[in-house]
Fold each of these.
Amino acid sequence: MIDSLYRQAFELIKQYDSIVIFGHINPDGDCYGSEIGLKAFLKETFPYKNIYAVGSGFKKALSYFNDLDSVSDDVIKNSLGIIVDVSDLERIEDQRVVSCLDVIKFDHHLLSETKTFGSINISNNNATSVCEMIGSFILANGYNISPSVGERLYLGLVTDSGRFLYLNDKADIFKVADAILKSGADIKSIYNWLYESDIIQTKAKGYISYNFEIKDKVAYIVLRKETLKLLNVDYNLASTMVNCMANLENIEAWVSFSESDEGRTRVEIRSKNVDVQQVAVFFNGGGHKNASGCSLNDINDYIKVVDKLNEVIFDVSK
Ligand SMILES: [Mn+2]
């Protein structure tokens, strides 16, 4: 079923000489990796086509791959758009996507199938990353993954899965990883810069590991702006450290609350098994079954999120 969508997408791509690939705001490793991995594949396969990837990219990887383009409005108006790792129009970083001639979407977020754009919407929440989907797309169309495509896709494969720890149910992730490794892609160089640890961040993680609190089945950390200032860590970066509390015994879910200078609080929720997406949605957020997020106007409301999580955990265990 999904393979036939991959083939349809490839047929549509063949019809355009100009293609622009778009990602989401605050691009992560999966967004950037799938944008530039798809770009590299299309450039290799169709050397005469103009293929562009737009957006601000994933900071850690920007200088290594250096693969983004600035594209004029005129080019976009005459191009096929491909959006990756995003389903909400307002979350697409370059809003000029609306002027593309047609759009193909590759996404793995929950409820993605309810949000359609152009003629081909490929939603697969069984995929752990969109890089995995792009790899499956390449294989489904009978191509091999080259080393340079593989290195780009590997970025999202490892970041969205937490180095193959958080896997969705019917993951093709190992099939794609196998094809990438067999291509001879240089994985070691990627690991060297991707997992280099920063001293300030390591200390901030130490703070979270030492100071988290527990209520029933939920572990949580409340990072007020004054604390983040002392730790010298931005609230968005602090949010990425939620997994310092991962896999604690007798704990089903863990959550971090990080307050921005403006007072808005970013909430990141993770779980072993329980579906925490419904809790994120309850607080006007969203995400995946075991990894979701939302935001609060007042950090002192953190206990409402903790209580709601315990309520869901209790309901499931009944
Ligand atoms: Mn993703």
Amino acid sequence: MKITVLGSGAWGTALAQLLADNNHEVTLWGHNPAKAETMQRSRENPLLPQRKLHERLVVTADISCVETAEMVVFATPSFAVRSTAVLAAPYIKAGSVLVTVSKGIEKKTHRRMSEIIAEETGNRFPVVALSGPSHAEEVVMGQPTGCVAACVNKDAAEKVQDAFMNTLFRVYSSPDIVGVEICGALKNVVALCCGICDGMGYEDNTKALLMTRSMTEMARLGEALGGKPQTFAGLAGMGDLIVTCTSMHSRNRRAGIHIGGGKTAQEAMDAVGAVVEGYYAAESAWSLANDMGIEMPICSAVYAVLYEGADSRKMVMELMQREKKEESSWI
Ligand SMILES: NC(=O)c1ccc[n+]([C@@H]2O[C@H](COP(=O)([O-])OP(=O)(O)OC[C@H]3O[C@@H](n4cnc5c(N)ncnc54)[C@H](O)[C@@H]3O)[C@@H](O)[C@H]2O)c1
């Protein structure tokens, strides 16, 4: 199949490599012409020095490369998904399946990535969200990995499942695109929070408490938006939460560690030097939860630290001193 991957960062490159390994004809589009040209010539992405580019993988900055694709994968940071969809839309051919692997919720509109892509392409194509515990650095090295392809259109989800799946990359299908995308966006906020706690010197008990109670918050918001409970216990939910909150591959966690160690949010992002999706997702999730009247105390605490300069240690104490609650209902 002819497939174009839009976004030549770590994840776009790792997936383009995987798809080329699966014998698809793959083009990788990057928005920066000089960088695309260097990648095409040097046959490497400096973000993933572990592996040379597949010999049949073509890198370009010419968006008309979408013209021949039967599948188009959006792999830019979430803030660039709308502008990339606007650029690509005129070239996408009838019958194509679109895929989003970007994780976030748009600021102000609170749109999920699949909604943005559908909107900017005139609702003419099925849009599938592919998500799960999958660091680019490990996928590119062929470490066994699992993800979920979610779409209300079963044929489209299965087409994506078939295109990406191989003996080292297992893909499950799901109709719950709402749950899958909400999990993907919110787990980055939790990873930032876990990093902040790491940076303050808190250890395993604190992390387990945070991850578990955050999962309750994620499910509360996701289910209110129409997501299914089992998605939150699945690969895109608990799976991605575990991988993001516990690994040093996670930029969100690394940014959090800097903040917990005393840096401001901006200084932490500068130190990480790459897109920290959790920073943007924290604001979107906080305002979405407020609009919907959903209680998300951990997300609110992260928002206060990132956007209002609140003291991390004081926020932890505030969370610990909230009124007593039941974990399971008594009735
Ligand atoms: N890295 C991973 O392991 C991983 C895994 C799963 C999902 N994701 C998600 O994939 C998305 C991309 O992440 P990444 O790790 O590849 O990021 P990255 O920082 O490695 O790369 C981002 C790329 O986007 C490009 N870019 C920046 N501004 C742009 C614009 N305005 N238009 C088009 N392109 C632009 C940059 O040049 C860069 O090539 C994020 O939403 C992330 O959450 C990443």
